[in-house]
Structure formats: structure tokens, C-alpha cells
Amino acid sequence: LWAPPPAGHRFTELREWTADLAELRPHFGGGTGPFPADLVERAEAHFAELLASQPEPVVLHGDLHHYNILAAGPDEWRAIDPKGLVGDPAYECAAFICNPVPQIAADPQLPRTLERRIAIFAEILGIDRDRIYGYALAQAVLGSWWSYASEGISDDPFLAVARALATLRP
């Protein structure tokens, strides 16, 4: 992971992966339907800004979270179910920050937990906190949109995470 993509690769570009959010407003006749307009606007803005300023793209897992990391022996881990994306390394943190669902939505200290996760990733990986935050909020809204588009669920754990993340930054 996080190596430069090989020439002629067929991995999905992060811009393509996140483009599904652009389907939300047309679906609701230009509005945001059951999704809070402020969260949708922030997600759209974060994706636009972060994608426009992303560093040289690298190979990403794309869905690296608690359920996709398995113990493979003492001090050895394996990542499973990769989506195979190419993009900004900061995006990789978003799935972990927003999971495990639905348990994370029940965390009574959810904003604190999310802020701590962002701080840990930023420190260990040397990635700007605001980039991690922006991708996490935008990915949470996108995850909620995916839940709605596939199952008709609009108030899911991803939306709870997005709401909590929104309290962390004005």
C-alpha cells in the first residue's frame, strides 16, 4: 500500500470513487432530501478541496477498517477486501475513523473518540489533521448516501459519525 501506482494501472481513481456523492442532489431534485444540507455542503466542499490539492497519488486499500484487518500471527496483520484505489493517503484513514458500524454510533463520547483517532493517525502517519478530518466527514456523508441509495436508509451510523465530526470543526 501507498506505493506509486504502476504505469497503465486499472485502479479506480479516488475522484471517481467519491463522485457518487454528486448523485445525491439530482436524486432529490436539487435538494438534499433527508440529509442535513449543511453536512452535504461540507462533504461536497471537502471532497472538492482535498481532491484538488491531493499529493502524488498512491495505491490505497480504499476500505481499511476494523473488519478488514485480520490477525495473521504474532505481531502480523493482513488487510482483506481491498477496493484498489489510487489517491491521497489521507483518505485511507476515513474508513477506520468511521467504523466499526453500527457500534461507533452508540459511543457516548463519539466526538472525543473521533478527534482522538484523527490525532493518532496524523501523528503516526505524518498526515495533516485537517486532511484526515475532511476526508472522514466527507466519507461519512458518502457512506450514508450509499446506504440510502442501496437500502433506503437515511439515518444510519455513518450520518451519526458525520454529525459528530461536524461538531469538531466550525
List keywords for this structure.
single chain; 170 residues; mainly alpha; three-stranded mixed β-sheet; two-stranded antiparallel sheet; 10% strand
Oligomer: single chain
The main sheet orders its strands as 1-5-2
What order do the SSEs take from the amino end to the carboxyl end, as H and E? EHHHEEEEHHHH
Q: Which regions are unreliable across 5 or more consecutive residues at pLDDT < 50?
A: none
Silhouette: globular
In whole angstroms, the N-to-C terminal distance is: 33 Å
Biggest beta sheet summary: 3 strands, mixed
- Mean pLDDT across residues: 94
β-sheet strand percentage:
5-15%
Helical percent range?
A: 40-55%
Number of helices: 7
Structural class: mainly alpha
**Structural Rg:** 16 Å
State the total count of DSSP E strands.
5
Secondary structure blueprint with pairings:
Elements: E1 12-13, H1 14-18, H2 24-27, H3 37-52, E2 58-60, E3 69-73, E4 76-79, E5 85-87, H4 92-97, H5 110-125, H6 129-151, H7 157-166
Parallel strand pairs: 1-5
Antiparallel strand pairs: 2-5, 3-4
Helix pairs in contact: 3-6, 6-7
